[in-house]
Structures are given as C-alpha cells and as structure tokens.
Amino acid sequence: MTAEAFISSYVVVLIVTALICGTIAVIAWRRPYAPGKSGLIAMMLTQIVWSVCYGLQLSPVYHPDPLFWTRLAYFGVTIGTAAFLVFVFQFTDRSDWVTKRTLALLAIEPVLFMAAIYTNDYHQLVVSAAYKTGANFEPRIAFWLHALYSYSVLITGGVLLTLRAIRTTSIYRKQASLLLIGLGIVVTANALSIAHVNPGPIVDFTPVGFTIAGVLNAFALFRYRMLDLVPIARDTVVERMKDGVLVLDAENRIVDLNPAAEALLGVDLAAALGQQAASLLARQGDTAALWKDLPADFHDEVVLERDGRRYVDLQITALPDSRSARGGRVVVVRDVSGVKHIESELRDANNRLRQKLAEIESLQIKLKEQAIRDPLTRLYNRRFLQETLMRELAQSTRAQSPLSVAMIDLDHFKRINDAHGHYAGDRLLEGLSDLLRSYTRGGDVACRYGGEEFLVVMPGASLEVAATR
Known about the structure:
469 residues, alpha+beta, single chain, 5-stranded antiparallel β-sheet, 3-stranded antiparallel β-sheet
C-alpha cells in the first residue's frame, strides 16, 4: 500500500472514530443517571475534536496556516486527559473531588500548553519550526513536559481504577477491569505514536486508542447497569439488614440507626436521634462503660443485659472527617446469642465425646491386656509367648547372641487341688507367678504355658547363666 493510500484509509478510520465517539456521547447524554456520565461525554467530545481535526490535517483540505488543524486537534489532546480523570473520579464514587477548584487546577496545564502551541513560532518550545506533518515531528521540552503531565494523570486514574477493582465485588470488578484495559490501549497507542512505531507512514494512533477505550467505558457502564441501582438500593439494604447499624457524630450523638438496632438495643429512632449514646445505652450491661468513651476502632463480643442475657458482636469503626481531628462512628451490632448457645452445646458435646474416647481407650488397653495375659496369674499367656519367642529368635539370629528358655512344671499339682481344693491351687499358682516376676530381669518374659506349666524367655542369657538363675 502506498503512503497516500495508507493516509487516506487512516482518515476514513478517524471519521469512523468521530462517529463512534459521537454515538457514545449521545447514548450517555440520554441516560437518566450513570456515575461518570458527564465525564464520559466530555471525554468523547474531546475525542471528536481530536479525530476530526487530525483527519483534516492529514487530508488535502487547504488552509493558509499548515498548523491550523494541528492546533485545533490539541484542544482534544489536552482537555481529553483531564476529562478522563474527571470521569474516573465520578466512576469511583469520588464525585465530591470534582469541584471548581479541581477543575481549575486541571485546566492550568492545558491552558499553558495551548498557549505554547499557538506561540510555538516564536519560541519553538513545543516542536521544531520545520514541523508540518508527523513525518518531521521533532518534540521539544514543552511537549515532553505535557507528555509527563498527561501520563501522570493517566497513571493516577489507573491507580484509582485498580483500587476500585480490588475493593469491589465481581460485577463492579468487571467494569473497572474493562476501564483499565481501555486505559492500557490508550497508553500503548500513544507510546507507539511518540516512538514512531507504525505499520505505514508516521501517524498518531492515540485517537483510535481513546475511541476503543471509550467503547469499553460505555460497555462497562451501560452493559453492567448495576451502578444505577446503588443510590436507590442503599437505604433499602440498610433498613432490612439483620445487623443493627448506628451512626454517631463526632460528639457521640446518635444520628441514625436502623430497625434491627432499635430491636437489639431497645431504643426508638425518634427518641434516640440527637441523644448521647452513653446516656441512652447505659442499661446495656458490659457496654455501659464503652459508650461513655467510644474508641476509634473496636471489635469484640459483649453482653447485653436488657430483657435477659444476650451476646452480641459489637464492631465500631471510625468515620474519617477532614474537617475535624475526631470524626464520627459507625456501630454494627449483631446478635450472636444463638451462636453462643450452639457453641456451648458443642463444647458440652466435645467434653462428653472426650470422656467417651477416654473410656474407649481405657477399655482398649484392658482388652489388649486381657488378650495377652493370663487372667489368674497376670503373667503373659501362651499366645503372647508365641509372638515374642519368634521375635526373640529372629533377633538372636541377627545379633548372634544367646537366647535361653526355662520351662517350669509343678510336680503333683493335682494332689494339691484334690487335697486342699482349687482355691488353694489357685493361690499357689499366684504365689509362683509373683516369685517369677520378682526374680526375672526387665527384658525377660515370664508366661503361663499351661495349667501348671510356666516358661521364662531370657534374651542374651547363655545356658550357664540361665541354669544358675
């Protein structure tokens, strides 16, 4: 494509850009309410001026002053950036920042820069005297100062949008994200244009970037229409909240409270307004002293004594006030008596469960002991002996150490049972068991092998040592 054909095509793009901006401005103007409406309209109008004048500069339309259309285009360039910041203020619920003083401050740089542009022939602080089109664009100090100012404004708006995206819910996060994407497109288009990175002849693609951003802005505002409901829904939401909400001024006087707070604290809105919180809420148990000197920030569970004992979660948050060192307070009261009752039941249930677990553990220990010990002599039984003997044999083989086993049999034990009865025989078996426990080492294992047969396993004991013992 030749340079002339590229320029002609780009002029058509600028015309389409101006039409899109005009359409968005009309749509925004017809909206009955939308945060950022006036800022968006101003931003779109400046882009119309920029796109049309820049298109006329590139077109063969004759004018005696070759920089006539360029100077007019810079009206859109300079004012558009300030309009963007105003739009961001309105969109991020900072409309109170848009004051006459703010607008006057934002107008200082555009006025100075426009004055520098119209007097550039005398001082050449914006561009060189040879500048006629983008091909011989040589920016000077005033241009770079303006670029620094513009990027500072755009970055400020980007930071505010980022904070909005972080602190809001998903529907509002989508809106802020679209606006951030649009801002990124604008910055990228402008940076590429300043750096002369173009697919064809050197042209400024920033108007197209602003238009794409404007389309994204309009989509964010008009596609996600939840913003329109915020001012209307606020009172309804607060009035229907189950949590009690009180608003106190800097002197701790009640200036607002919702029905839930009236019910929880036992106060009436008409009688409470303008009253000191300390005097009105003095009957509230643990909180009586708290109301006298409210901290800036407080969050804890307290007890209300009115109409019985009630537990509430009390949160106090300070309201910043730029005109006073001490601002007001927002108090949120939530009845957690039901939760405390459930917690108490859970604690009781946990205590009972721990007791049951302790009993089960004790029973398990007893069952384990019963499974491996003889009930009469309390020595290990034959089952435990089999497991232990196999283990000790394997250990003895690995360590090449001796292992001795002594078997004890009571001769003529039946005569004792026949002559003196089984009770006497049992006492004899118990006495022998006590004797074995007393004379065996800690590592030895004494077992009742049968009725009157006993067996002692002695790990590490040689045959001579075992015989001596």
